[in-house]
Amino acid sequence: MADFDFQVVLKHVSGLPEDVAINTLHFEVTGPDTLEGTCDGIHAAYQALKPVLSNSYPNMTIKVYPPGPNLSGPSFQKDYAFAGGGAPCPSEVALCLSYATVDNPDASLPRRRGRIYLGPLAANAIGEPRPGTTMRDYALDLGVALSQIGFGANTTWTMFSKIDNAYAKIESIWCDDAWDTQRRRGLRPTMREVRDVQ
Questions:
Q1: What is the DSSP string of 15-67?
Q2: What's the pTM value of the predicted model, to 2 decimals?
Q3: In the chain, where the domains are located
């Protein structure tokens, strides 16, 4: 068995590296499952999110790294076509899928919890002050799909604790009824409008 970090990169139509949206997932993978098969499973899980994601991110790349420093780059990577289903809202807006390594999240330690920031979202996905049942279901369905990647016990969705320097199996997921903000996903301004008021 081996642990790997899977960097899921959604690429903006601008083509600029600073405009990408990234989530890093962790899986323990063993034969007969493969890194490519796990990447395909992640892509398939994300496909179900397309109706509520911004169409400004038409491509996905998944890069796979073994634990530790990787000065030579990823061990494996694969590109996918990936277009969200709606016009974009501000790219900083996200919906958070949280997870823990115990069945009861309230009993978990902070170092045994993690988050996936879903987005950038489509404008039609955030028409309410709080994420409704439909939006929360999109997030939770993604978590279920990630947990089912691979065959039997060959592939396991995990989290990585920097404090413990260890991977652990994810046992529970949840989604709150509040939007999150990922400021680093904000796009750079392309123009400035100035008015002289004196």
A1: --GGG-EEEEEEEEE-TT--HHHHHHHHHHHHHTTGGGBBTT--EEEEEEE-S
A2: 0.91
A3: 2-183
